[in-house]
Amino acid sequence: MNYFITGIGTNVGKTVVSAILTEALQADYWKPIQSGTIEGKDSETIRDLISNSKTNIHPESYLLKQPLSPHFAAKIDDINIELDKILLPKTTQDLIIEGAGGIFVPINETHYVIDIAKKIECEIILVISNYLGCINHSLLSIDYLLRQHYKIKALVFNGTFETEVKSAITNYHKDLPCIEIPTLEKLTKDNIQLIAETLRGKF
C-alpha cells in the first residue's frame, strides 16, 4: 500500500510521522520533492531515525536548494517541476511518501503537492499539530480531500491537544480513523521505535 503523508501546514511533524510509520510498517520511504537541501534532506533524517533493515529510501525526483515552496525554490534553481516526471518508485513493499508543506503548496504554476497523491493513487495520512488556527486548517484540509474523493487513511494528532481542540476536528467527520502521537522531547531511534510498535497492526 502507498501512503501519502501530508499536513495541515508546514512544520507540523510530517517527517517524524513518516519515520514512525516507515518503522512501524518496515516500509520504503520516498520524498518526491525536497526543498531546502542547503539545510539537509528529510530522507537523511528518516535514515537516522529508523532501526529496521528492510526499508529502502528512494531518491527524490527533484532536489531544490532553498527552503521555500517548491515552485519558488525551483524558479531560483532554474528548474521546471513537471508532474508527469514524478514517477512512483518500483518496490514490493509498502511505501511512505512524504509531501512538502500542506496540501495546497504549489509545485509549479498549475499543480499542487496534493496532485502528486492523485497521480500515484495513494491513501492520505493527514498530520495535525496543535496551534492557534489548527482547527480551521484541519477542517479545510479534510473538507477538500473528501470533496475531491481522496481516501483518508487516518488523521494523525501529533503532540498534545486540548480536548476541545481535538473534538472540534474529529466531530467534523466522525468516521475518520485517528492516531495520537505523543510529543517527543528527543528524536532518537529508540523513541521512534517505541511509538512505531504501538502502531503495528493498525495499517
Give an overview in words:
- The strands form two sheets. The protein has a seven-stranded parallel β-sheet, sandwiched between helices. The chain has a two-stranded parallel ribbon with strand order 3-5.
- The model has no long low-confidence stretch (mean pLDDT 96).
- It has a single domain (2-199), classed as Rossmann fold (3-Layer(aba) Sandwich).
- Helix 1 (14-25) packs across helix 2 (42-49), helix 1 (14-25) crosses helix 7 (189-199) and helix 5 packs parallel to helix 6 (163-170).
- It is built from seven helices and nine strands.
- Helices cover 33% and strands 20% of the residues.
- It has helices at residues 14-25, 42-49, 70-76, 113-120, 134-147, 163-170, 189-199; strands at residues 2-7, 28-30, 33-34, 57-58, 62-63, 95-102, 123-129, 152-158, 178-181.
- It is of the alpha/beta class and 203 residues long.
